[in-house]
Design goal:
The structure holds two protein chains of two kinds.
Chain A lengths: L1 H18 L7 H13 L4 H23 L8 H17 L4 H25 L3 H19 L4 H4 L5 E2 L17 H22 L2 H11 L1 H6 L4 H27 L1 E2 L6 H14 L5 H20 L4 H15 L3 H18 L1
Antiparallel strand pairs in A: 1-2
Helix pairs in contact in A: 3-8, 3-11, 3-12, 3-13, 4-5, 4-6, 4-11, 5-6, 5-11, 8-11, 9-11, 12-13, 12-14, 12-15
Chain B lengths: L1 H35 L6 H18 L4 H26 L5 H23 L15 E4 L2 E4 H23 L1 H11 L1 H6 L4 H22 L10 H4 L1 H11 L4 H21 L4 H15 L11
Antiparallel strand pairs in B: 1-2
Helix pairs in contact in B: 1-5, 1-6, 1-8, 1-10, 1-11, 2-3, 2-4, 2-8, 3-8, 5-6, 6-8, 10-11, 11-12
């Protein structure tokens, strides 16, 4: 009797994991995070940066990879989250988790405000409007009228962050920050998985493939896209808030176009529309750019530009696509 | 009262000059979008290349602006044609995302090259003496440089218009913009028409880049800095419409100049608010034809 119940429970669990596309592969990043902590302790701050960018790239993958929203201004959400988290810590409370939640709400609101305008249009106008929103926010943060709040070019600094859950203070070596960021990555990844494998996620993919047909099927295309834009914006704001809390510094560069551009490079490098691409791409990009920036920051742009051009030509599906192709070839060889 | 009208005239001339520079830049971009549906984010880069070429010629080879201008334009046209034959080929069929990423890659490479060759300082092409004067008519002072920009741009726009409306090539181009597949079916060599137009568009952008350096100074991130206003012009004008771009460029140039002068507190935002309002009203572009 009890054996049969166990079997059924296992079967239900299996079906649930399969429906949300969870497999053993998902344990690899977790294992990697643990290994980095124990064997590469010197690189914890860099690994934490990787995780912040993973969250940012995941949020962009939702909008761009799944929804087909060509956003060049995702940094607007990132910066909004960073400023809100910084201001919240300065003026309200220094609780880190609460700060991230407030940042997420601010990101979602930004998406709700700008989404209906941006997503009514199509093609290059979407690109222009996302870019314009980000430019506008950066100018707003730097405007004279806003200086008492945003600190203008100086940015926000000198705010405290309380111990995580009241137990783990943020230490100089970044141990707490590392696991904090790791926890956020896990939560964000689970949210992304739930979103893309839900009926809503299927509708979104349908819209990416053929918006006219989805409209004919009775789907409210703009409303779905705005919802996705809000979710993606909230997650991008979480990345920004995380960055603000860990570096304890928010500047105008957290609204700079370069961050949007970098996130795009990460995504194309890893592969869009798979979530894993965001993780792989962000890891490769941040580690490489850290090494390169130490050597020659401006000429690093040559490499980034070349990677973009060559990736579009020779590996449009990114590293994930290359791996999938290799796996498929292996299978074909085995079956023949 | 006289002071007020003098200010308005001066602002109008500033605004029109800025708008005309934007228009010259937008010609290539809007046609690229209309004919080949290529989202070319690197288009501003060609203006930058033209500007830097003229700057290098004027400041190190010590030739005048007017000798450097054609050299810069032709050089940029050749360079544009070269890129169109090579990397742009790759993204004709990849969809918008591939084009955005590829052209963004070009922007990064342009920026890195400009920084390597010319450093990160702001540069402007030196003007001949008679251009840097102001003409005083009573209370009204008119900048010779800005009037010159307007004259040259209007002349170039008129040439474009004549070619587009009254020549065989113009007819082919219009057909290709309206319906590229149909144009191909009736025997127009659309890729060739496009290649030529792309190159000419790069040349016009280069002209704008050279002439506009006093308004839009050269810097490594030039291609990105002026991308947003340029995209605004194209979006408001309606993709593929030269006439639309012309009106949109003038409107936005004037709105921006007046906004910055009369509402200094929110000056930089007036243009964005205007664009947001215009696109809420007509998402396909204010000056776009209703059918497309």
């Amino acid at each position: 009797m009890s054996e049969r119940v166990d079997e059924r429970a296992v079967a239900i669990a299996r079906a649930g994991f399969a429906r949300h596309g969870v497999s053993w592969v998902d344990l690899i990043p977790v294992l990697a995070a643990v290994l980095v902590y124990f064997f590469l302790g010197r690189y914890l701050p860099l690994a934490t940066q990787v995780m912040i960018q993973i969250v940012f790239a995941l949020s962009l993958d939702l909008a761009l990879g799944y929804g087909g929203i060509d956003s060049l201004g995702h940094v607007a959400f990132f910066g909004m989250g960073a400023y809100v988290a910084g201001l919240f810590a300065m003026h309200v409370t220094t609780q880190p988790v609460l700060g991230l939640c407030v940042a997420a709400v601010a990101g979602a609101l930004t998406g709700l405000l700008t989404g209906p305008l941006v997503l009514r249009t199509r093609g290059l106008t979407v690109v222009m409007l996302t870019l314009a929103v980000a430019t506008m926010l950066q100018q707003l943060a730097n405007a004279n009228a806003m200086k008492p709040i945003t600190g203008g070019a100086d940015g926000l600094f000198g705010f405290e962050v309380a111990p995580l859950f009241g137990l783990f203070p943020f230490d100089l070596y970044g141990h707490t920050a590392y696991w904090y960021a790791f926890g956020v990555v896990v939560v964000v990844f689970i949210i992304c998985k739930l979103v893309v494998n839900s009926p809503f996620g299927l509708a979104i993919r349908g819209i990416r493939e053929n918006p006219v047909r989805m409209r004919m099927l009775g789907v409210n295309v703009t409303a779905r896209l705005v919802t996705l834009y809000c979710i993606s914006g909230a997650l991008a704001a979480v990345a920004g808030g995380l960055s603000a809390q860990i570096t304890r510094l928010v500047g105008l560069d957290s609204l700079a176009f370069l961050l949007s551009g970098n996130a795009l490079v990460m995504l194309i490098l890893g592969g869009t529309g798979s979530l894993y691409g965001a993780i792989i791409g962000a890891t490769i990009f941040v580690v490489l750019s850290d090494r390169a920036a130490a050597i020659d920051p401006f000429n690093w742009l040559f490499a980034v530009g070349a990677v973009l051009i060559l990736a579009v030509r020779f590996a449009p599906k990114g590293v994930v696509g290359l791996i999938e192709d290799a796996v498929q070839r292996q299978r074909a060889r085995r079956s023949s | 009262m006289a002071g007020f009208s003098a200010t308005v005239v001066a602002l109008l001339i500033d605004g029109i000059a800025y708008g005309m520079i934007l228009f010259l830049m937008s010609v290539g971009l809007t046609i690229t979008l209309g004919v080949m549906r290529i989202a070319n984010l690197a288009h501003c880069g060609f203006a930058m290349i033209g500007g830097y070429a003229a700057f290098a010629l004027v400041s190190s080879a010590h030739i005048g602006l007017f000798a450097a201008l054609p050299v810069a334009i032709i050089g940029t046209m050749l360079f544009g044609a070269l890129l169109e034959r090579s990397v742009y080929r790759w993204v004709y069929t990849t969809g918008q995302l591939g084009q955005i990423l590829m052209t963004l890659g070009l922007v990064f490479i342009f920026a890195a090259s400009a920084n390597l060759l010319f450093g990160s300082d702001l540069h402007a092409v030196a003007l001949p003496g008679w251009l840097s004067e102001n003409w005083d008519w009573g209370t009204i002072a008119i900048s010779a440089y800005r009037s010159f920009i307007i004259l040259v741009s209007v002349a170039l726009a008129a040439v474009c218009w004549v070619i587009l409306e009254f020549t065989d090539f113009g007819a082919k181009l219009r057909a290709a913009v309206d319906n590229p597949r149909m144009a191909r079916c009736i025997g127009i060599d659309v890729p060739r028409v496009f290649s030529i137009t792309f190159s000419v568009g790069c040349g016009l952008a280069a002209a704008a880049g050279v002439l506009g350096t006093q308004i839009m100074p050269l810097e490594p991130w030039y291609a990105l800095e002026y991308l947003v206003p340029l995209l605004m012009v194209v979006a408001v004008g309606g993709l593929g419409s030269l006439k639309g771009s012309f009106y949109a460029a003038l409107t936005l140039g004037i709105i921006d100049t007046f906004g910055r002068y009369y509402l200094p507190a929110i000056g930089a935002f007036v243009i964005y608010l205007a664009v947001v309002g215009l696109l809420l009203w007509r998402p396909q572009g204010v000056f776009a034809r209703a059918s497309t």
